Amino acid sequence: MTTEAKQSLDFEGDLRRAGIRITRPRRIILGILQETGDHPDAYEILRRASALDASISLSTVYRTMKLLEEHGAIQRHAFAGGPSRFEHTGEEHHDHLIDVETGDVIEFRSARIEKLQDEIARELGYDILHHRLELYGRKRRKN
Amino acid sequence: MTTEAKQSLDFEGDLRRAGIRITRPRRIILGILQETGDHPDAYEILRRASALDASISLSTVYRTMKLLEEHGAIQRHAFAGGPSRFEHTGEEHHDHLIDVETGDVIEFRSARIEKLQDEIARELGYDILHHRLELYGRKRRKN
DNA sequence: ATCGGTGCAAACCTTTTGCACACTG
DNA sequence: CAGTGTGCAAAAGGTTTGCACCGAT
């Protein structure tokens, strides 16, 4: 635990330092990703961005997603079936539990699972670059 | 544990019992899935099926995949990026480690991870229907 | 003979790309 | 001002579907 709270809010500065131009669309899209607590897909991001600047296009959303992904500012998820959904990279790594009835996404983390994954990969002779753990479940009704 | 070894080889019978007609394309596709050890995508399945019956179409492959998936005979994987890849449901559940450099898929299983997943879901108030665990890694070079 | 299954082509959905213009640094 | 970024429209995957014919039961 004890991961010190990263002041991860300065993506703009990070990008600028990397030689990336901060344009109006990028600022808007980045702002949306940073503020939201959910996992919107490209169309949803476009919808929200359009409210702030009607001229933003879907291509720009996708291009910005790719850019931000490459710079580690966001992560791309491909939950079963649908389109990619994006999430801004926060302080701490987590995995997802998807409610198959509502589509809700619940975040959780387990240091023990992470550790087990590392052990397994090591036994197989690999170094893990990243992983994906998704639980698909249904809300338990108390009985 | 002690799941008794299912003689899971009689998918045809299972399907027939479920009122599904066993046609030539279905038998061929099912055969391919049962024999292969890898995780082919729809085009690859079509390619192999075509060798046995040149008239089989991609639509039939997809339709059969959906059918088999619904009957639990196969699983559909959506590894990062590419198209869906299919795998015939074998005796024992397993997860995947994807070699990011070669695309190779290595299967592994860990009862401890499965157990942890159940615990986590229970704590969150959910019952797990299924899950997806993929490790993306690079072969470790001895140094 | 019936009704489900198939091939074909067209449609769909998500994502990428070519091009000419616009804007950031 | 140079060169990157953008919008638009078209293209590129991957997957699904409407339709008329075909074949399993």
UniProtKB/TrEMBL annotation, chains A, B:
PANTHER family: FERRIC UPTAKE REGULATION PROTEIN, ZINC UPTAKE REGULATION PROTEIN. Pfam families: FUR (PF01475). The keyword Transmembrane helix does not apply. It is found in: Cytoplasm. Homodimer. InterPro entries: FUR (IPR002481), Fur_C (IPR043135), WH-like_DNA-bd_sf (IPR036388), WH_DNA-bd_sf (IPR036390). Keywords: Cytoplasm, DNA-binding, Iron, Metal-binding, Repressor, Transcription, Transcription regulation, Zinc. The gene is fur. It comes from the Bacteria. This is Ferric uptake regulation protein. Its main location: cytoplasm. Belongs to the Fur family. It comes from Aquibium pacificus. SUPFAM superfamilies: Winged helix' DNA-binding domain.
